[in-house]
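Table 4 source record.
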Amino acid sequence: MSWAIVDISNFYVSAERLFDPTLRGVPVIVLSNNDGCAIARSEEAKALHVRMGDPVFKMRDRIKRHGIQIRSSNYELYADLNRRFNAVIADHADVMEIYSIDESFFRLPALPNGLGNVKMAHLVRDDIARSVGLPTRIGLGPTRTLSKVANALAKASEKIWGGVVDLHDVELRRRLFENWPVGEVWGVGGALEARLRTLGVRTTADLAALPPAVARDVGTVVLERLVRELGGVECDDFKIAPEPLKATAVTRQFGEPITDPAELREAMARRAARAAEKIRAQGLAAGRLIAFAHGSRYRPNPPSASRTTRLSPPTNDPRVIVGIAGKMMDAMFQPGGVYNKCGVLLEDLTPEGKGQTDLFAVPDPKAPGLLAAMDGINARFGRNTIVLAAQGSGARSFDTKRSQKSPAWTTKIKEIPVAR
């Protein structure tokens, strides 16, 4: 068996083009929350030197001059297309691992001569294109690391390889690795790349030739396994695991500035509830809560304040977190102040029920059942089907601005496209 990884080309832009043919062949950028900056670009937009993170207000002339089409982030659409994308992969593979919103690993049988099954990989690409409508690239290799490198090569030179690169062939690996920078290898970040350069390791070929013991000294056992995988030796449990979550934050700029304390409290409650939901989904509880609110730095004398408190016992209960965050907001409010952002940070995250508590902390025995029911209903009928009263209901002026958002083509019955 060989490893394969498939990624979606310019996922957010491709998703927008899927239901809006007028976006095809023209420069397109997708914006971040509140329509602040570019987070995805079509190839045409890249050719116009639009960079990731470029703020919209600095690109207005360029957008007008070149007719660049802009869209707000439509996360509901992207999540649904991701689900369909993975369903197609699952039809072709017994083993599949979702790696990110636009990438998934899966297993494919190798050919009798030991090479990867490029023909089968093209069939998977064709099936995704036919069933979901998204363009993809696939990397093949005897290990996850080699398939990831193959995928990066397929992305960098798609016209040469036709969207699929197979790195089972040792001689092909040797030739390609000589010109592939070590910083492009999966798991090699900027700091590690700098350390490797002091040893003369500049290309993937240099890294693959590094003795595993030296790799462990330079990095950790993770780098040692990465070197072994580059050499074609599969480390069964090797994956570049994300760092354990130590903190989470929910911060948003308001769609419109706020001066009313009741609205501020409601906005803070929504962010606090969302933060609690995020850590609860990962089985974590928070030991510290930080809340902040401030105005625009471009206005004279903007209000700005933050508050911090310890949570004991550590909790992910929105009733507790929202209640405390609301009181913090009341304490921070400055009459006459114009606010444009607030947020909540949850820190000291520990596995649920494992955090250190104090002698007098009394957990609520009914909380697990109540929260499980709440999360279950929201999962089945949609987010915010059940919310705390403090969060209010419906769209509000302080909600994140998405003025260029495309319809929910696949998730709302009223917005499903109609063929005429």
